[in-house]
Amino acid sequence: MRFSTSISLILAALATPLVVFGEPIPASEDTDVASLAKTVKVLVTTTVAPAPATATSPAKQESEVKAPDIIELTTGNFWTTIGKGYWFVKGYSPTCPHCIKAAPIWKQLHDKYATQVVDSGTPPSPNSDPGSPSSSPTFTEKYDFHFANINCVSYGDICVDKRVGVELFPSFILFKDGKAIEQYPLDADRTVEDMSKFVDKYIVEISAKSNHNLAIPKTIYDESKNPEGKSVALTADAFLKEVIGTGDGWFIKFYAPWCQHCQALAPQWAELGREMKNQLNIGEINCENDRRLCKELKVRGYPTIIYFQHGERIEYNGLRGLGDLVSFAKKAVDSSIKEIEFTDFEEMEKAGMEVAFLFFYDSATTTEDFQAMEKLPLTLIGHAPLLKTKSELLARRFRITTWPRLIVVRDGRPSYFPGISPGAIRDYGRVTGWMRSVWLPILPELSASNSHEIMNGKTVVLGILSRDRTKDFVAAKKELKAAALEFMDQRQLQEKNEKQELRDKKQLRIEEAEDRNDQRALRAAKNMKVNLEKKKEVGFAWVDGVFWERWVRTTYGINVGEMGERIIINEEDTKQYWDTTLEGTAIVPSRSTILDTLKAVIAEHPRIRSKSTTNRFETAYYQIRTKVSNHPSVSWFLLASVVIALAVWGRGRMKRRGAGGFFKLESTKEEGVGGKVD
Questions:
Q1: Which tens digits make up the pLDDT trace of 70-100?
Q2: How far, in Å, CA of 155 to CA of 146, rounded?
């Protein structure tokens, strides 16, 4: 089967039933909301992705209390459940022999800690809720350390998330406040004794920090925000006063009562209000009652979810499960620019940060520059953090010599915002446009939420990999990333040489004009612009060929389980892909093979025959459309030529018809009825 619909829709459909598509808005008459158009600012929107994860920890003491069941996590409750405290999570497959063997050991480890009572005394009832008051708190109550399972066959979207990092079964990963902090070594012995040492290491750390009194994870509470813990029904007047007028953060759902998708979202939205009590204002607007407001805000489908703050807005386009909504809401609350030093940045890199934006400033940086930066974090929610620093060590590392300066660091490699003038760095549209072009990691994982951004508008080298073969998986990713970095270096050098060549040509013309004392030619030479010819944009990514097995097999004809790791080069805009080298062999994860094949594919006249993900007619249509968009002037010339040719042909045809069709009446002028006249 070949696909003809958008890659993102296919991936989303295969990945999870949580994706809910909006319904179109019917035509309606405007209601009267005075001067609304002048007040409401409709600003830039962007796409967001789901949010991060959390963690856990234990203590010591025996008890005869019956151990509770180990918590089973799902897609719907994973992030919200592990969002506070320490969580030791086992990622497993029900059919995996190693998982079956490890199951009783994992249960014994859980029971050992779950039945402990801290500081002695009478144990609480086995049926009491975790966290309930007790004269002798349990281990879980004291240290906020929990055990849980995640079935990676049923909930693969969680396990393959890079924030979780399950690479093979079983994996035991420790989370703290939603972030993975350490994995139990894959090659370590899985015994209760050895795994207890791993757990006890964190119990000692918690005890040392809190003096046996665990601090609750830091969540910023503000009683003025969402005091009742519910979604507030807003009218147009209330929106102008509470949202636009105050500049406070508001997460708002725009809906219509008859919309089925809105009805399906309602329970999650109500629960979101409760979850974000004293943290973030949650609201909803009935567009049947306030049609003018929804029209001014350019709400085009139901439900539409938008986050507003300080006169800016960002449209939420992620999944609509409760966990996804809560993750975004919490990120929005904590979206301010963080001040960091050199050591902070190093720690973030060690923790696995792939992309970060850095704003360098000094004592001469103006208030206007800081105000311009304050508008940006909203756009970056779900992508990369924006950090600010005046660290000389960081400036030295990234060769910053002028301030203020904005850069992005991807896998340790800096790229610089092209504008260095004060006006450029305060240009919101220009800065956010640049950020969108560089906020993906150098080698991102293809998923339902980012497929459109990764695949559209460029040639993509896509690695089809399998986490089941750990060594092959790690080696293939390493080769893919090496190929991506090498390609970036080659293209950068190529563009540098081309730019220098154009500058040399310009200088040569200037010198020639000066030698001839030709002022007109001199002005023309000095006004020459050094513009590089636009090249095909190339990206690199990888996809889990086991998790996306059906899509990969039906689209590219590849079964990673049988064929091993493969590389394909895809052009989504033309629905074409390449899966063989110049020699006709399969493209394997080798940087030299990838780069040689890529060079042959992106040449002006590709030297390798492509395959199609659609039928012939659709392929021809996409190819023509791409050529038209790439060469608009030539296309308009050809179109004009065709129109002129058709006009000339049509005019000639009309003349012949006006002359009597196929009969030449002039030839009978001299003839009578019976023949010629003498």
A1: 999 998 889 989 988 899 999 999 999 899 9
A2: 20
